[in-house]
Each structure stands twice: as structure tokens, then as C-alpha cells.
């Protein structure tokens, strides 16, 4: 992806504005740690890559750079009004904040006005509506592959922002990092403090939350068709990690579900226990190959791993959760890993390297992501 827009004055101004607002929230103790600077920078990077891919995949190469620029701005500003405790939807408030910036008479206002009415409208509306699910966003803006008479750019920017914010930030290597820290550590100060012991049982906290996420709602089915192949690929990483934790605990899915319900793990009810006991995703029969080709294949590979490799996976999953949960921040854990590594555990090193690649938004990582989305779009469009 061409990142020319990162040299644009408005990109730098938006980035500095975001950092200033987040610094104020941090000082006031109201910043959402799960939605701090690292989150919005990742959303900005992957939102831009998505927008570029959507344009290129539908034969609109000339608009790819501008779409990426607009999506990157939306990503930087989408959580500008989000706080740790939400009293009202932050999307509309964030859009209002950006609108007020555009009204300023000085430098910042001039920069936002330089987008023109259409460009600003696409960013403004994407921020205002980003808390809605994909289905609602498509209803509002139209399908970015076929807008059916509706303006194209607002649809592309809104779907791209949602992709970076929801699909990518809630899957793959990123979720390993976030869940290890925020469930494996931060929640022990709240709802898990009387249920499990920190840090010895941080991996069980991660396991319980993972089961809830994988079974209460299958997000793959909520994604647009052009995003599903990539979503399957990153979803498979969650199943890989999940299977490692199960092996470490010595429980199968049904036993783990019953255990979580017995200890009173948050939101783990009998209905969920029954669902897990019936579906058993890791058995390899739940995801049909014709509907979930990537995920079905990856789970099959997972089941066929040699015992030695499964042991490495189990120890790696446990060690990765502990490694991140015991740090003062994910950044500290990453810094420690870069200095000390994770020994000879192959999967642990794979997990940490994946986390680093995602967080850094490296050129190679972004290009690979953009290419896969573009290929998916082209396949659907027959281009």
C-alpha cells in the first residue's frame, strides 16, 4: 500500500490531536486502555489498507490513494471521545468533535476544509456510525462493491473503518495480546478477583473469555463476503491458541465449559455450556468445508499436529498469556520479548512475532493484508 498520505499535514495534525486528547484522558484517569494510541494507530493503518484494496479490487485504482487517506483519518479520530466508562455512544460525539475542528479559523480548520465537502463527509459519517455492525453500515451506505447509486466514498471509508476497528482488532494475533492483558490482568481488579487467582490462573481467564467469544456469537457470519476469507484465516489463530490452552489444562471443550460455569465465570451460563457441548468446534465437524474452507482446513491441520508439536503449543499458549499478563503493559511485554525472547518454544515466538508485526503495521504485513482483500473482492466481482 502506498502510504504517501502519512506525509500530509492533515494526517500529522490529526495524529497529534489524538495524542493530545488521549494524554488528557490518561491524566484524568478516564482513558480506555483497550482503545488507546496503539489501537487507533492500528485501526488507521488497516482501515487505509482496506480502503485501498476495495478500490483496486473494483477497478477504481485511481481512487485508491484518496480512499486510503480518508480511512486513515477516520481511524485516527474514531475513538477521540471514547472513555473507559461509556455513558453514551462515542461515535456521534467523535464526529461532532471533528466537525468542530473543521470550523476553526486557524491552521487545523484550514487543513480539514482542504478535504472538500465530500471527503470530509465520508470521514465524519464513518466516525459517527462506526459502532454499528457491518450489516447496518451496509444498509446506511450501500455495499462498497455495488453502491447502487449511492456515493461510493462514504461506503468504502465506513466499511474500511469498521474492518480495522472490529474485524482486525478482535481477531488473530492482536486478540492474543489484548485478551492476555485486559482479561488476564486488568479484569482481575474487577469481576474476576473472587473467581480466579492472578497471575497463576490468568490463562484460565483467557480461556473462559475465548469460549464466550467463539461460541456466543460467530463474528465470521456477521462480516461482508469480501472479508470472510481473511476473517477465517485470523479466526483460525484464535482456535490454535484456544486448543493450546485446553491441552495445557487437560480439559476438553465440554469439561472446560462445565468448569467455567461451576466457578461462576462472568456471563458463562448453562445455555452456553450446552451450546459448547453440542457444537465442539475443535472436533472438526462444525465448520463445513464448502462454507468455511479456510477455517475448516486449519482446524483439520490442528487436529493432525504431532504430539510433540501439540505439547509446544500448549506450553506456548500458557507462557504467552503469563508473559503479557505479568507485565505492566503490553508494550513492556513486547520490549522484554525483544530483549530476551521466549526460549525454544516455537509457537510462543510465533505468537509474539505476530503481535509485533500487527502492532507495528509493517509494510510487509499491510501489503499482505491489502493483497488478500483485493483478491477476495476481485473474485466476487469477477474482475
Task: Reconstruct the topology from this structure.
Layout: H1 9-28, H2 37-57, H3 64-77, H4 90-103, H5 107-113, H6 116-129, H7 134-141, H8 152-167, H9 172-182, H10 202-216, H11 228-249, H12 253-263, H13 270-279, H14 293-303, H15 307-325, H16 330-340, H17 346-360, H18 363-381
Helix pairs in contact: 1-3, 2-3, 2-8, 2-18, 3-6, 3-8, 4-5, 4-6, 6-8, 7-8, 9-11, 9-15, 9-17, 10-11, 11-14, 11-15, 12-13, 15-17
Low-pLDDT segments, ≥5 res: none
What's the order of the H and E elements? HHHHHHHHHHHHHHHHHH
- The average pLDDT is 94
Q: Decide which structural class fits the backbone.
A: mainly alpha
For the sheet with most strands, the description reads:
none
Number of domains: 2
Secondary structure: number of strands: 0
- Assembly state (oligomeric): single chain
Q: Calculate Rg over CA atoms.
A: 21 Å
Helix content: 55-70%
Strand content: under 5%
Give the distance, in angstroms, between the N- and C-terminal Cα atoms: 20 Å
Tally of helical runs? 18
Shape: globular
Describe this structure in words.
It contains 18 helices and no strands. With 383 residues, the chain is mainly α. The chain has two domains: 4-165, no CATH class; 172-360, no CATH class. Helix 9 (172-182) packs across helix 17 and helix 10 packs across helix 11. The radius of gyration is 21 Å and the shape is globular. The model has no long low-confidence stretch (mean pLDDT 94).
Amino acid at each position: 500500500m502506498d502510504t504517501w498520505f502519512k506525509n500530509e499535514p492533515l494526517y500529522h495534525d490529526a495524529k497529534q490531536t489524538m495524542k493530545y486528547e488521549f494524554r488528557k484522558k490518561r491524566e484524568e484517569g478516564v482513558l480506555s486502555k483497550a482503545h488507546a494510541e496503539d489501537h487507533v494507530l492500528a485501526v488507521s493503518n488497516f482501515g487505509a489498507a482496506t480502503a485501498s484494496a476495495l478500490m483496486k479490487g473494483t477497478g477504481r485504482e485511481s481512487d485508491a490513494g484518496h480512499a486510503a487517506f480518508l480511512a486513515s483519518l477516520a481511524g485516527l479520530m474514531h475513538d477521540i471521545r471514547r472513555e473507559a466508562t461509556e455513558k453514551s455512544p462515542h461515535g456521534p460525539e467523535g464526529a461532532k468533535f471533528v466537525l468542530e475542528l473543521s470550523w476553526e479559523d486557524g491552521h487545523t480548520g484550514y487543513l480539514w476544509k482542504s478535504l472538500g465537502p465530500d471527503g470530509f463527509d465520508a470521514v465524519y459519517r464513518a466516525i459517527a456510525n462506526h459502532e454499528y455492525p457491518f450489516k447496518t453500515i451496509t444498509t446506511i451506505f450501500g455495499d462498497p462493491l455495488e453502491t447502487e447509486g449511492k456515493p461510493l466514498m462514504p461506503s468504502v471509508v465506513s466499511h474500511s473503518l469498521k474492518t480495522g476497528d472490529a474485524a482486525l482488532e478482535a481477531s488473530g494475533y492482536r486478540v492474543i495480546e489484548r485478551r492476555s492483558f485486559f482479561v488476564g490482568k486488568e479484569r482481575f481488579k474487577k469481576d474476576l478477583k473472587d473467581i480466579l487467582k492472578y497471575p497463576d490462573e490468568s490463562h484460565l481467564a483467557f480461556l473462559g473469555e475465548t469460549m464466550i467469544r467463539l461460541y456466543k456469537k460467530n463474528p465470521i457470519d456477521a462480516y461482508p463476503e469480501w472479508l470472510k476469507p481473511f476473517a477465517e484465516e485470523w479466526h483460525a489463530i484464535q482456535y490454535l491458541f484456544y486448543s493450546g490452552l485446553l491441552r495445557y489444562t487437560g480439559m476438553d471443550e465440554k469439561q472446560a465449559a462445565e468448569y467455567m460455569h461451576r466457578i461462576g465465570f462472568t456471563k458463562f451460563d448453562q445455555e452456553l455450556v450446552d451450546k459448547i457441548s453440542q457444537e465442539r468446534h475443535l472436533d472438526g465437524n462444525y465448520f463445513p468445508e464448502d462454507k468455511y474452507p479456510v477455517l475448516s482446513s486449519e482446524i483439520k491441520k490442528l487436529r493432525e499436529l504431532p504430539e510433540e508439536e501439540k505439547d509446544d503449543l500448549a506450553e506456548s499458549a500458557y507462557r504467552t498469556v503469563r508473559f503479557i499478563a505479568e507485565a505492566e503493559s503490553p508494550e513492556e511485554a513486547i520490549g522484554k520479548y525483544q530483549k530476551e525472547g521466549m526460549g525454544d518454544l516455537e509457537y510462543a515466538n510465533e505468537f509474539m512475532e505476530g503481535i509485533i508485526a500487527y502492532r507495528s503495521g509493517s509494510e510487509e504485513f499491510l501489503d499482505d493484508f491489502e493483497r488478500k482483500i483485493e483478491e477476495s473482492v476481485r473474485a466476487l466481482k469477477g474482475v
